[in-house]
Design goal:
This protein starts with 5 loop residues before the first helix and ends in a 12-residue tail after the last helix. A hairpin with a 5-residue loop joins strand 10 and strand 11. It is an alpha/beta fold and about 750 residues long. It contains 29 helices and 18 strands.
């Protein structure tokens, strides 16, 4: 079972208190030294354990553990040399190499702090140089201030004095470095850095006090004084703070970019300190070694400045590359958004230009020639740019132009000028190449949006220009200015499309049936299945509101399948009720070209138990002419299944006699434009009569739709029409209401054949 963290902490605190009590008595000073040694070894062990559990920060705490071990082993060696915890100046002088060796722990501490900083920050340049500059300055200051006073007070040599002075100086350096890291990270600093800074601050206070004690300024150098006890306890507390920092969890923070003034703190501080020492040298000459170290620090600052200048040059080059298009040398998409994001309070025009026929150049002459053309276009457009304009290449053959201070009129004039510039041919690979362009124009006004309105923003302005550009492209090229009403309509169409996708899946499509009547017997011989959309917000929508959009986006197949399955199911119920009606289902062009349509008809009819001969597939002349060969193959397979074919809207399409000759359709469905005029226009009546004779000669039935009055019905009968459909017989109704309608139209219940002639 894992022990609570409080138990080791409590044991360490009790051990520290016990060592303090033992150190206060000269008779037990040796035991105090031994206990302190054990506590310091426990600190090293805890740091090693913390490093093992720290994952990505393992190297950080491993370096701290190594540095602490160097200091601890050096201190224990001095205790052994002194024969107890009393380390007098003579002991230090006798062990000067050992005292200097203990300073090797501080490079390890510094490496740990640098590793911790690099784990949190990108672009931390030359931290080793910053630390070296600080060490040079501290060494120069210590030699200038303490060399002669300590030599007079203790009799120690320069090397021993330098080592004794360097230790508290390096403690201060470590504390300042940790605090500087906190300032670089700002509010994102984790809890470990303040603990590290506190540990070295406490250690610096202890080492400074010990240095003063050696100089005789803090009491005599004897065992058991309060000062010596406080120094020992403070050092143990510093070790405990390091252990506490190592036990803190590493926060999961994104790595940050250190920029700006915090990175200049170290070189600026070193430069100011060096200047202060050189000024002091004019009043009182400093030791030669201090002067050498001071000039070395100034030289290091010079190197730092040169490195910073090189870094700045590199960053400027990187920034330029980041906003420049490699192919044309124009600004790129990032530069476009940077320019659009600049606050200004002026109107801004944005032109989006897409080259026409560029793909032909790429496919015919090759991509390298296409690149040559893009560079030539960029050069020609650049030569026509107005003042302050920014031309960018967004990618491919698409360019954007920002016009600060330009309203809609000025932007339109610039667009026309650029379009004119592109009319002249380009020479590409020795050939004259003509390219046009489609240009969309959008403007963002200087007037703030009204209350409740959302500001456009740079992305919105680009979207508006893009919408206008596609309007121009659909018109065959040229310039189009963003039209809010048209854009709103396009967005509503897009929303309607997404709602239609959802509606199909949710079963919102419904079918309505309109009777088809034999004009001679008055019997209902069939019905046409008509699709409607029961929209959750807009109510019942007629096909004109959504079928065109469905055909554009390839959704007619799903709609046809829904209508076909429902029509077949309803036809089975009518057949079971003694009314063997044929059912006509409309098929769009995309569906007729789908080779899976015959299998869908066969499978649906077979699964429901309906004779496929009761189904009529209505197709339009336009559908037939889109791809005559594929259409004929599909129709042949439908006929093989047993379904009938009806040519819908006859007379309004191509009306080619060739496909009537080759197409074994069973029915011609005369468009309502002829039905509406037949009673008032003799020429229309002649066309209807001729069409009836043609249909009968080819073995087809002629059905007229749009019949709304008795006069038209009688005239159509006299002209040879076989069947009629329209509001005279009844409006489209749901399947449940159709039986009632049929009883009203055919009260005798005379059954009509369900099979086609």
């Amino acid at each position: 079972m894992r022990r609570p963290a409080a138990l080791p902490a409590a044991a360490f605190a009790l051990g520290t208190a016990a060592s303090a009590a033992l150190a206060a008595n000269p008779a037990t000073a040796a035991a105090a030294a031994a206990l302190q040694g054990l506590l310091w070894l426990a600190v090293v062990a805890a740091l090693v354990t913390g490093a093992a559990r720290s994952g990505a920060d393992r190297a950080v705490w491993g370096l701290f553990a190594a540095g602490t071990a160097v200091l601890v082993l050096g201190r224990l060696a001095l205790y052994a040399s002194a024969g107890g915890p009393l380390v007098e100046p003579a002991v230090l002088e006798r062990n000067a190499p050992l005292v200097l060796a203990t300073l090797l722990g501080y490079p390890l501490f510094y490496a740990g702090q640098v590793a911790l900083l690099r784990r949190r920050l990108h672009r931390v340049r030359s931290p080793w140089l910053d630390g070296s500059l600080a060490v040079l300055l501290l060494a120069a200051a210590c030699l200038a201030l303490f060399l002669e006073p300590l030599h007079r007070a203790t009799g120690m040599g320069p090397a021993t004095i330098a080592a004794a002075v360097a230790r508290p100086s390096l403690d201060v350096l470590m504390a300042v470095y940790a605090l500087t890291t906190c300032s670089l990270l700002g509010r994102r600093t984790d809890a470990r850095l303040p603990l590290v800074a506190a540990a070295f601050t406490v250690l610096a206070a202890a080492d400074v006090t010990d240095l003063l004690r050696l100089a005789g300024a803090a009491g005599p150098v004897v065992v058991g004084t309060p000062v010596s006890v406080a120094v020992d306890v403070a050092r143990l507390c510093a070790g405990a703070l390091l252990v506490l920092a190592a036990r803190q969890p590493a926060p999961r923070l994104p790595r940050l970019h250190a920029e700006g003034w915090p990175l200049l703190m170290a070189p600026v501080g070193v430069l100011l300190g060096s200047l202060a020492l050189l000024v002091a040298d004019q009043w009182r000459p400093l030791p030669a070694a201090a002067v050498v170290l001071t000039f070395s620090a100034v030289g290091g600052v010079t190197v730092k400045v040169l490195l910073a200048f090189a870094e700045l040059t590199r960053l400027l080059g990187s920034d330029r590359q980041a906003v420049t298009d490699d192919l044309t040398g124009l600004a790129n998409r990032r530069a476009l958004f940077q320019r659009l994001a600049r606050p200004g309070g002026r109107a801004t025009g944005l032109l989006l230009l897409d080259l026409d026929r560029f793909k032909e150049v790429n496919d015919t002459l090759g991509h390298h020639r296409g690149d040559d053309l893009l560079r030539a276009v960029a050069a020609r457009l650049t030569a026509r740019l107005p003042h302050e304009a920014l031309l960018t290449r967004l990618g491919g053959d698409e360019f954007a132009l920002v016009l600060p201070g330009a309203g809609t009129g000025a932007s339109r004039r610039v667009a026309d000028d650029l379009l004119t510039a592109l009319t002249e041919p380009f020479t590409v690979g020795g050939l004259a190449v003509h390219v046009g362009a489609s240009i969309g124009v959008a403007t963002a006004g200087a007037v703030p949006p009204a209350d409740g309105a959302e500001p456009g923003g740079d992305a919105e302005l680009l979207r508006q220009a893009d919408a206008a550009m596609y309007v121009a492209k659909r018109a065959g090229g040229g310039v189009a200015v963003y039209d809010e009403a048209a854009d709103r309509s396009a967005r509503e169409r897009l929303q309607l499309l997404e709602e239609l996708r959802t509606g199909i899946a949710a079963g919102q499509l419904v079918t309505r049936y309109q009777p088809q009547v034999d004009v001679r017997t008055g019997a209902v011989v069939g019905v046409e299945a008509l699709v409607r959309w029961q929209h959750p917000r807009r109510g019942l929508l007629l096909p004109g509101a959504f079928l065109g959009l469905a055909e554009e986006r390839g959704l007619t197949g799903a709609i046809t399948e829904v209508v076909l399955r429902r029509a077949v199911a309803d036809a089975v119920r009518w057949h079971d009720a003694g009314r063997p009606l044929r059912v006509a289902v409309n098929v769009a062009a995309g569906d007729l070209l789908d080779p899976a349509l015959p299998d869908l008809v066969r499978g649906t009819a077979s699964a429901a138990g309906l004779d496929p001969g009761a189904l009529v597939v209505e197709i339009t002349e336009t559908t037939l002419m889109r791809d005559p060969e594929r259409s004929r193959r599909t129709i042949a397979e439908l006929l093989a299944v047993g379904a009938g074919i009806s040519i819908d809207d006859y007379g309004t399409g191509y009306s080619s006699l060739a496909y009537l000759r080759d197409l074994p359709a069973a029915e011609l469905k005369l468009d309502r434009v002829f039905t509406a005029r037949v009673a008032h226009d003799p020429r229309t009546a002649a066309i209807v009569a001729g069409t009836a004779d043609l249909a009968h000669s080819l073995g087809m039935r002629l059905l007229a739709e749009g019949v709304e009055d008795e006069e038209t019905l009688h005239l159509l009968r006299s002209l040879g029409v076989d069947e009629t459909q329209g509001w005279l017989h009844g409006r489209p109704v749901p399947a449940a209401e159709l039986v009632t309608l049929l009883d009203r139209l055919d009260p005798r219940g005379t059954p009509a054949t369900a099979r086609l002639p």
